Amino acid sequence: MSVDHHWSRYATDGTLVSVTKQSTQRKESQTAREFAMRFSSTPRGARLARRLTAHRLNAWDLPYDSAANDTAVAIVAELAANAVRHGRVLGRDFHVLLRLTGDTVRIEVTDTRAERVPAAPEDRVPDPLAESGRGLLIVECLAGAWGWHPRQDAPGKTVWAEYALGG
What we know:
Heat Shock Protein 90, two-stranded antiparallel sheet, 29% strand, disordered N terminus, HATPase_C_sf, HATPase_dom, Histidine kinase/HSP90-like ATPase domain-containing protein, serine/threonine-protein kinase, Anti-sigma-factor_SerPK
């Protein structure tokens, strides 16, 4: 896989970020498009992740007003909000990876908090009067599959979701 990294101080209060422009991978004549970026673990970073996801998907011919764009953005919004709220470590960023392969969008959000992992589905029943606690339930409803795994190269975890276009 060919990856083109650009380093920038764009929109993260001076924090260096890595932007992966576009990657092509030949696998049964499919082209994989990829976007990766680090964001500050703040509400502003989560909002920027959401906006750049919508922009990138639009550039990949999934228009802003399409159900596919809206669904993927909603998944990123929930996972990024969780990374900021539950995975934040002072001075550490979270990472978003979008990969479009064929008719599937894979979204990965990585944070640096290894000890706070998503609860099992049977343990995720929020209080009906609570103002929070429904993010992963929303992801579960929108995505065809989702899960998490420990981060390979450093402390933390990656929460991922896959969404089939048109599904």
